Amino acid sequence: MPRIAYFGPSGTFTEMALAQFESAGVFDAPVERVAAPSQGGALDLIRSGTVEGAVVPIESSVEGSISATLDSLAIGPRLQIVAETELEVSFTILAGTGTTLADVRLLAAYPVAGAQVRDWVSRHLPDAQMFTSASNAAAAEDVVAGRADAAVSTALAGERLGLTALASGVADHDQAITRFVLVTRPRVAPPATGADRTSIVLELTNEPGSLMRAFAEFATRGIDLTRIESRPTRTGMGTYRFYLDCVGHIDDTAVAEALKALHRTAGRIRYLGSWPATSATGTPPPSDEAGAEWLIQLRKGVADL
Amino acid sequence: MPRIAYFGPSGTFTEMALAQFESAGVFDAPVERVAAPSQGGALDLIRSGTVEGAVVPIESSVEGSISATLDSLAIGPRLQIVAETELEVSFTILAGTGTTLADVRLLAAYPVAGAQVRDWVSRHLPDAQMFTSASNAAAAEDVVAGRADAAVSTALAGERLGLTALASGVADHDQAITRFVLVTRPRVAPPATGADRTSIVLELTNEPGSLMRAFAEFATRGIDLTRIESRPTRTGMGTYRFYLDCVGHIDDTAVAEALKALHRTAGRIRYLGSWPATSATGTPPPSDEAGAEWLIQLRKGVADL
Amino acid sequence: MPRIAYFGPSGTFTEMALAQFESAGVFDAPVERVAAPSQGGALDLIRSGTVEGAVVPIESSVEGSISATLDSLAIGPRLQIVAETELEVSFTILAGTGTTLADVRLLAAYPVAGAQVRDWVSRHLPDAQMFTSASNAAAAEDVVAGRADAAVSTALAGERLGLTALASGVADHDQAITRFVLVTRPRVAPPATGADRTSIVLELTNEPGSLMRAFAEFATRGIDLTRIESRPTRTGMGTYRFYLDCVGHIDDTAVAEALKALHRTAGRIRYLGSWPATSATGTPPPSDEAGAEWLIQLRKGVADL
Amino acid sequence: MPRIAYFGPSGTFTEMALAQFESAGVFDAPVERVAAPSQGGALDLIRSGTVEGAVVPIESSVEGSISATLDSLAIGPRLQIVAETELEVSFTILAGTGTTLADVRLLAAYPVAGAQVRDWVSRHLPDAQMFTSASNAAAAEDVVAGRADAAVSTALAGERLGLTALASGVADHDQAITRFVLVTRPRVAPPATGADRTSIVLELTNEPGSLMRAFAEFATRGIDLTRIESRPTRTGMGTYRFYLDCVGHIDDTAVAEALKALHRTAGRIRYLGSWPATSATGTPPPSDEAGAEWLIQLRKGVADL
User: Fold this and answer.
1) Which CATH number fits domain A1-89+171-187: 1.20.210.10, 3.40.630.30, 3.40.190.10, 3.30.200.20?
2) If we measure between CA atoms, which residue out of B219, B203, B211, B212 comes closest to residue B267?
3) How close is the nearest chain C Cα to the Cα of D283, in Å?
4) For the ACT domain, which residue ranges apply (chains A, B, C, D) (predicted)?
5) For residues D31 and B131, what is the distance between their CA atoms, to the nearest angstrom?
6) Domain ranges, ordered by start, for chain D
7) How far apart are the first and last CA of chain B?
8) DSSP letter assigned to residue A255
9) What CATH number was assigned to the domain covering residues D91-170?
């Protein structure tokens, strides 16, 4: 039975994403779920050999990339993303029996969640203090432990812990979607499907135009960049690491050529994987089949070309 | 006496940055400091006419751009950055008299600060719960109010509130620097100094290569991009707003030409200002004086060119 | 009465082009036509102050650029193109009275003309030797002087010299068009019409990518290059001078910016003029009026942009 | 015994180039030399199966590309360049015994040669008429046949025909070099040497920026373009065919990728061959060995990269 870590404890959206992966048949066999206290912690369980895979959130349509996940993927032994799934995210405000919204003084929330309900809280709980929980499920546990009056959490956590929902569907932005990825040790990528995503991390040499040249490797080859995130490398103001997603698969010639070119010209490149995209955005890179066949004929000296 | 808002309350690093602006003679007259509860709140005080300017943090060498500041600059009536200053940031752990590190169960912290002392806390206060405060100074106030046992805060806040420093110089990363900016209503930019920064926000039309083309407007003109941050526009997964800083001033011809070109080709561009850079990074754009003079001669029909 | 040189003697296509300029009202007053023995000779008459202008062929749709004209424009004191006209070119085979095609052993031809009737000659005069004349009209004169049996020439030359047309409308390629230009000393360019041509000569520094960068100055600014000719600089194998035509006028902002940029980055640039195009090819460069106005407002500090 | 055509008749520089190929051991066996009346004629002898190869001039450091050769390579069944050699070219003025320079009224010259001695002729033979010969050797034959008084020709032709040299080393430009190529039917290219030349013909779709995009395929991959010639396609003013030489070999990955990309994006591309360059100009394309190996490891899922 494969052991799969997730950013827990039980009741987080990440556990729901893991369940979604299970329903979709991503795993060959039933999995043993292993809760980890942070995104980085879940990924480190793969590196230590404790689990075979881990599910972590990677991007929110509201808050953008999940820094903790990106940083953990960029640093330390290389891991590989092999699948993704998306969840529409809205929150449930949980409290113990008998508590009403008017009673809430201390509200437990995971900061990423807190940021997505800020407006709702300022309207409905203007006097509440925000208490930092380690995850959406941990926020519910903080209520059970008496450390907070209510929690910004998930319906699933409420059910598990027997808490009451003071409000549900809470979200400042409609259609807040979070993307989760399944990460493993480096392996052969899942086969190309024609609607794939490839992800890399670039650290560029500090010459003028180096970013421009890196982007040109994609643009010239007709490859669509769908995500560009910069994060400081923490080695000084003004030095960045770039997280790039493009449409396509490492087995697509155009993508392979761009990766090789970046390996040669960019300061440092880390490949994070190629996998089927759930929501198709962007245009697949052009096929080079005709060109490859033409090249073979040219090299053979075939006349009629 | 000009009224200048800052992300407060009194005792934040932002207030220290405001003091630094005052010492540097940025203001003509003594200023009245007005604390605001958030970065966005400080900026809105300019928009409402309550203050003439506001000081807000914009970028940390550890955490990257301050999202709340960027988002508030990108949305709503346009404001303009007119000056910057930098602070080396490390934290002081404050508590009431008699409290020791071993006593700390509930630790108040502003999330940006919490992220920068995470390792220190897990080593020195492994059992402490993190309590979300609204700012570094507010964390100290949460201790005074009895809502937390200790605070991740500033020495200044400790002095003001009479708290004890359990630890000082606390920071997971050496040389953590935060850049703060002085923002006003749109105005004539301060004169070019030869070491300036210009900042814009771009929302690009969703065509392949549009980002590449936008970058080419800078690269072709020899303009150095020093910061590229993408943030979701919150209108759906995969649509981004780009925050770009370049070396140079709106009165430099190369920068002016790039801005005009982006105004024509990019979906939406917002100019956030040109101002003297404190730490020089990158190369100033090339002068076009010789070329401009040559062009004038050509247009006049001068022969010997 | 302005004196205008042309590539003669009387009876050349170039004289017909000069007549076309006269009919079109290009000159304010009747002109005195001055025949010159070569394209370079006609241009040198401007440089020596003997004439005010000169008409020379610059490009053939069959043979490409006229090297002698281009080289003479690129070297020596700068001159300026101020107008263009086009002629559909076909040749008349001229001979003395009584001569038939079967009698022709020695055929006089200007080499550019010879190249355009090569197929016709090999079919109709397979045994004729080709005699090099200095121009199309000079070929007819060579017949009159008894140096050749027949001439590849123009109907006009036949009329002037009383020769018989053995064949007319002779051309290997349909719709062979030659473009002629009116050249003067450097002067203020004729006003922009919205359908203009600008011409430059570039000598690039011998670094990899320098040509690419030069082209990017046009492409980035949306300027259409309509002619790219390379000619050896005669200083060694592999060093070239580039003759570029683009759509637009030196008074168009985009063109002016590209010229200034090339002045700064390219090894050497010579401006050959901006003038109305007779046959519109390509798209005019984008207007920057909206952007220029926006920039003025930004610099003034206007709020609502 | 392989039959090799050359642009003749006997005594041309092209025959000297063929001799140079023979001395260099390009052929396995002694060759039978077959004179052809023109460059296109020599190439057509390959197409008709009459000869196995042909030697033709392709570029002069003074006059630029030899149009007749380029056009014949671009049109009709594809041929392939497999070797090159270079000759320093200066001319010999040949005449019959007893003739002096003062006696020369009619001077036979191949037009390409005539263009390279124009200044010399105007100084030394100001009254001579130029007679068009079909090649440098044919000019000497025109003297022998009494059709001209003297010839712009080669020393070799003088020896063969027993003519006297009135002047030798005649050339308006020092170091006039002509490059000749050996052409065959399409075949496997000679092995890469690390200092190779690859030649292609491009006909671009008539969209703005198409030339720029074509060049970007080379520039992005670090491939040096060493020759760019445009020639009208003869289908109308303003439509061109581009002849491009780059440093590198079809077996170099970068070159192969650029060719494939152009096959996909350019209107029409014809490959003219890859062969060892005699005079090294430009930098070889970057090797992708390290990148290719890295890619293989990535695809296998190797961890430590």
Assistant:
1) 3.40.190.10
2) B203
3) 8
4) 199-276
5) 92
6) 91-170, 188-291
7) 56
8) H
9) 3.40.190.10
Handedness of CA D76, D82, D88, D90 (dihedral sign): negative
CB contact under 8 A, A77 and D303: yes
**Alpha-carbon distance B192 to B275, whole Å?**
7
**pLDDT score recorded for residue C300:** 92
pLDDT digits 0-9 by tens, C6-15: 998 899 999 9
Q: Which residues of B touch C189 (CB under 8 A)?
A: 299, 301
CA angle D65, D69, D73 (to 5 degrees): 115
Cβ-Cβ contacts under 8 Å, A293 against chain D: none
Please check the confidence at residue C212 and state whether its pLDDT lies above 90. no
From the first residue on, what is the mean pLDDT of each consecutive set of 10 residues in chain B (305 residues)? 93 95 94 94 96 95 84 94 95 94 92 87 88 88 92 94 95 88 97 96 75 85 85 71 93 95 89 90 86 93 80
Q: Is the peptide bond before A232 cis (omega within 30 degrees of 0)?
A: no
Domain D188-291 listed as CATH 2.30.30.90? no
Q: Do chains A and B touch (3 or more CB pairs under 8 A)?
A: yes
Provide the CA A246 distance to its chain's centre, in angstroms.
Answer: 15
Q: CB atoms < 10 A from the CB of C13, how many?
A: 26
From the list B260, B290, B304, which residue is nearest C292 (CB)?
Answer: B260
User: Parallel, antiparallel, or unpaired for β B3-7 and B32-36?
Assistant: parallel
Report CB contact under 8 Å: A64, B228.
no
- Does the bond joining A9 to the residue before it have cis omega, within 30 degrees of 0? yes
Which pLDDT value is given to residue A228? 82
Question: Is A95-163's fold the same as A188-305's?
Answer: no
CATH of C95-155 given 3.65.10.10, 3.10.20.90, 3.30.1300.10, 3.40.190.10: 3.40.190.10
Share the mean pLDDT of chain A: 90
Q: Which residues contact D5 (CB under 8 A, 6 or more apart)?
A: D34, D35, D36, D41, D42, D43, D45, D46, D50, D51, D53, D54, D55
Do D132 and C142 make contact, defined as CB atoms within 8 angstroms? no
Cβ of C109: how many Cβ atoms within 10 Å? 29
Q: Is the pTM of this model over 0.80?
A: yes
* CATH number given to B188-305: 3.30.70.260
Here the ipTM equals: 0.85
Quick one: closest CA in B to C212, which residue? B220
What is the least distance, in Å, from the CA of C91 to any CA of chain D?
Answer: 17
Segment A75-96 shows an average pLDDT of 95
Residue of D78, D217, D250 with shortest CB distance to A303 = D78
Q: By three-state DSSP, how is residue B107 classified?
A: strand
pLDDT for res D63? 77
Nearest CA in chain D to C208: D224
Q: CA of C186 to nearest chain D CA: how many angstroms apart? A: 26
Provide the H-helix boundaries in chain A.
Answer: 13-23, 39-47, 67-74, 111-116, 118-124, 136-144, 155-161, 210-220, 253-265, 289-300
Residue B304: its chain C contacts at CB < 8 A?
Answer: 77-78
Across the interface, whether the CB atoms of B234 and A282 are under 8 A apart is answered: no
Q: Are B145 and B163 in contact (CB under 8 A)?
A: no
Sign of the Cα torsion D176, C39, C76, D64 reads negative
CATH number of this structure's domain A95-163, picked from the four choices 3.30.70.20, 3.40.50.720, 3.40.710.10, 3.40.190.10: 3.40.190.10
Of D121, B258, B304, B212, give the one whose Cα is nearest residue C134. Answer: D121
Chains with 3 or more CB pairs closer than 8 angstroms to C? B, D
For C153-200, the pLDDT digits (tens) are 999 999 999 999 999 999 988 878 999 999 999 999 999 999 999 999
pLDDT at residue A91, rounded to an integer: 95
Mean pLDDT, rounded, for C262-290: 88
